[in-house]
Amino acid sequence: MNYNNPPQRRSSAGCVIALLLLFVMVLLGGLAFLGLGLYMTARSKVAEAHVRVQRQLAEEHARLAREHVDAVPADEPPAVTSWAEMEQLQSAEPPQAAPPAPPEPEPIRVANREIRVTLDADGHITVDGAAVERDKFREFLEGAGKGRESDLKIVVAAHPQCRFEYVATVLEACQKVGVPDVRIMPSEERPPE
């Protein structure tokens, strides 16, 4: 007998490790398979939801198309299906046009040389008692002093609580029109205490 090479024995620890590795590999494979199954299920549910939404959109589109076809606008002539209908439509009177808009009022001509411009607390403009829109004030001045800009005197009376930007708008309009004599004073109105 040869005792130089003792018989090979497997240790029980090596077998346990091999079995554990095999178990872990099977477990990981099962988890991977389970994850793939869950992924595919979720993906199919998303696809089903997409198909359901597409179907709902198609139904809504068809409903809107039916409503559009059913509703004939009043300004479009109806479809003619016979010669008699066409003759009847031709004999009908055309719709009447809306009456023309009233013309813009002529600017007020100033008889005296002084124009009193009043600004209230909110910046609303009145010229000698007549209300004028802020963006139309310059046009008003141009019409009021046509050819007499150098003779005009403008007195701007601003409410004590009026923002200065509104006063500046009036002053700028006077300057652009060419009115040389512009005075600023507080209005007689007093702010509530």
Which helices and strands appear, and what pairs or packs with what?
Elements lengths: L11 H59 L12 H9 L22 E6 L5 E3 L2 E3 L4 H8 L8 E6 L5 H14 L3 E6 L7
Parallel strand pairs: 1-4, 4-5
Antiparallel strand pairs: 1-2, 2-3
Helix pairs in contact: 3-4
Keywords, please?
193 residues; alpha/beta; Nucleotidyltransferase, domain 5; elongated
Walk me through this protein's architecture:
- This protein has 193 residues and is of the alpha/beta class.
- Among the domains are: 13-71; 114-186, Nucleotidyltransferase, domain 5.
- It contains 4 helices and 5 strands, in the order ααβββαβαβ.
- It has helices at 12-70, 83-91, 137-144, 164-177; strands spanning 114-119, 125-127, 130-132, 153-158, 181-186.
- A 5-stranded mixed beta sheet has the order 3-2-1-4-5, with helices on one face.
- Strand 4, helix 4 and strand 5 form a beta-alpha-beta unit.
- Helix 3 (137-144) runs parallel beside helix 4.
- Mean pLDDT is 77; it is low at 105-110.
CATH topology (level 3) name of one domain: Nucleotidyltransferase, domain 5
CATH architecture of one domain: 2-Layer Sandwich
Total number of beta strands: 5
Helix content: 40-55%
CATH class of one domain: Alpha Beta
The main pleated sheet reads as:
5 strands, mixed
What is the typical, i.e. mean, pLDDT? Answer: 77
In sequence order, what are the helices and strands, one letter per element?
HHEEEHEHE
Q: What is the tally of helical segments? A: 4
Using the CA coordinates, give the radius of gyration: 45 Å
Placed side by side, the strands forming the largest sheet appear as 3-2-1-4-5
